[in-house]
Amino acid sequence: MIKMKVLLFISLSSLILGACETSDRSPNDDMDSDISTTESVKESKVTKEPGIQELDNSIIQEIEKIGTEEEVDWDKINLNKRQFSEYIESLSDLVTDESDTDEDALSIISSTMIDNETIEIVINNPDKSEMSALTNGFFAIIMDSFIRQLYLSSDFSDGSTHPLIIIKDEENNMVSEASNFIEMESTE
User: Fold this and answer.
1) How confident is the model over 59-87, as pLDDT tens digits?
2) Is the pLDDT reported for residue 178 higher than 90?
3) What b/e sequence results for 34-43 when a residue is b if at least 16 CB atoms lie within 10 Å of its CB, and e otherwise?
4) What is 76-105 written as a DSSP string?
């Protein structure tokens, strides 16, 4: 369980710290792209928003607390639609890269936003024992909670609108499908 939290923290930190890219565009480039109606039709507001590499330092500091003993102040985190989408799309690359050193680690095969309210994650668990369902379940709870909280702190949500988060295994078996935080069942 701790290993999965650390993996998520490393993934997000790698994305924020390692995704810096330089831009060779000049202000005139934007004017040139407006000349072409085909280009302006294809461009959306999301692509004009700052990307994840342009996160504010205060947001980065809060995100760096994920996976540590420090409490994250989610009120200080606000991702625009592009930043959130880029993060979701990059989950499979980052988690897979980090888990390459551990062949037995559960990893994300793909992560996509199907639409503005639906996120689908496909995982691979090399452990095929009877414990794999439990491992998948715990991973789903952690991923769902983390992604859901980021979604609630993004421009996709009004603060109370939740996404549908679908987590499947590589054989297309449903691990979880939830439209609110997953709660653990108590045993009596």
Assistant:
1) 989 988 887 899 999 999 999 999 999 99
2) yes
3) eeeeeeeeee
4) G--B-HHHHHHHHHHHHHHHHHHHTT-TTS
Amino acid at 73: D
Type of residue found at 131: M
DSSP state at residue 66: T
Tokens of 170: 């590589």
Task: Name residue 124's beta-bridge partners.
Answer: 107
Instruction: Tell me how far apart the alpha carbons of residues 117 and 163 are, in angstroms, rounded to a whole number.
Output: 5
Identity at 91, one-letter amino acid code: L
Q: Is the pLDDT of residue 29 over 60?
A: no
Six token digits for residue 5: 């939290």
Within 10 Å of residue 148's Cβ, how many Cβ atoms?
A: 20
Per-residue pLDDT at 4 exceeds 70:
no
- The residue written with tokens 């996976």 in the block is 67
pTM comes to 0.73
